[in-house]
């Protein structure tokens, strides 16, 4: 009987920050070709990992609602007037507006003034960043089509004074990544055991690091790769 030694602590930790159940998390990272879903790769020159590739839950497009009026108070009022118009139009178009650095929360008229106001790319400019979130559905979903829809959506938003909206690059988001931790661990166990079997029935495997952070990054136009950095050793039983 094979011996499989797993060092596992059930710790719900996520990168870049802990994920609360049901939070939608922005996915970052360079795209990589993963035609084989559970393959080794090196992230940030770190340890190799085995993981799980799955379709993301949403497309998310950054929207930068801004004003460049010279007067600070006027900038603020113009910015939030256009943001209010954006909220109204989004509701009519079936688009959800969310905000946050990683965990995304809905943006409403009631909470919009709680958003951080930062300087823009030009002097005397203030802006807030939100995301237009669209569920990723069907096999034909694409960044190009989504970006086109968002551009049309933004064109229809009325400006106030010197307010305007810049549109960022469409990316991906995923709900509650920690729900996939057990699946990642199962794949690690299966793959590492397969390697041990290559050495014969007298060998088993010891795995370390499964108590570590769960990481995720974009792996294709519509997919996310989730993994735990770990190492394993093949030893005689």
Provide a descriptive summary of the structure in words.
β14 and β15 (223-228) form a beta hairpin. The protein is α+β, with helices and mostly antiparallel strands. The chain contains three helices and 16 strands. The protein has helices spanning 72-93, 143-155, 181-197, and strands spanning 4-6, 24-27, 41-42, 48-49, 51-55, 58-67, 96-99, 103-106, 118-119, 126-135, 163-167, 171-175, 203-208, 214-218, 223-228, 231-236. Residues 1-21 and 30-48 have low confidence and may be disordered.
Main sheet specs: 6 strands, antiparallel, barrel
Number of helices: 3
Q: Termini distance? A: 10 Å
Mean pLDDT: 82
Low-confidence stretches: 1-21, 30-48
Q: Report the radius of gyration as a whole number of Å.
A: 22 Å
The amount of helix comes to 10-25%
Number of strand segments: 16
Give, in order, the helices and strands: EEEEEEHEEEEHEEHEEEE
Q: Which of globular, elongated, flat, extended, rod-shaped describes the shape? A: elongated
What structural class do the secondary elements suggest? alpha+beta
Strand order of the largest sheet: 2-8-7-10-6-12
- Sheet-strand content, in percent, reads 25-35%
